[in-house]
Amino acid sequence: MSCQRSANNSLTRNPVVASSQARLQERIEHLGQQIEQLKEQRKQTPHHLTLAQLPEEKRFQRLLPERKHFLDTIRMIGYRAEPSMASVLRETLARSEDTRALLRQIYNTEADLFPDAESKTLTVS
Fold first, then answer.
1. Structural domain boundaries of the chain?
2. Does the predicted model carry a pTM greater than 0.70?
3. DSSP H helix total and E strand total for the chain
4. 3-state secondary structure of 28
5. Alpha-carbon separation of residue 15 from 7, 10, 11, 18, 87 (angstroms)
């Protein structure tokens, strides 16, 4: 311990080291004050914003009720159609375990849809 004290004493007696330590201590105190100011600023920042307080470009667009209802209907039809399609495919496939994999592949394949309102048909190509 006495070696460590003598080393510390000799460092603080050196004017170059002492001035360097003083600058570092001032910087530490200054940064500590900045941290406290930022903490106070953060405490005064509101935690929740209303939609009206957001800038116009940051606001999200709400779906119209009709559009939401239409999309929910399509999802429901798809949810109900999958088991029906699987049961039809099970009858024709040699291995019934392959039905879900085949349906997934069909659902992920891109297709062009051509509706014909006059004949009330939908052509898929």
1. 2-43, 65-108
2. no
3. 4, 2
4. helix
5. 14, 10, 8, 5, 90
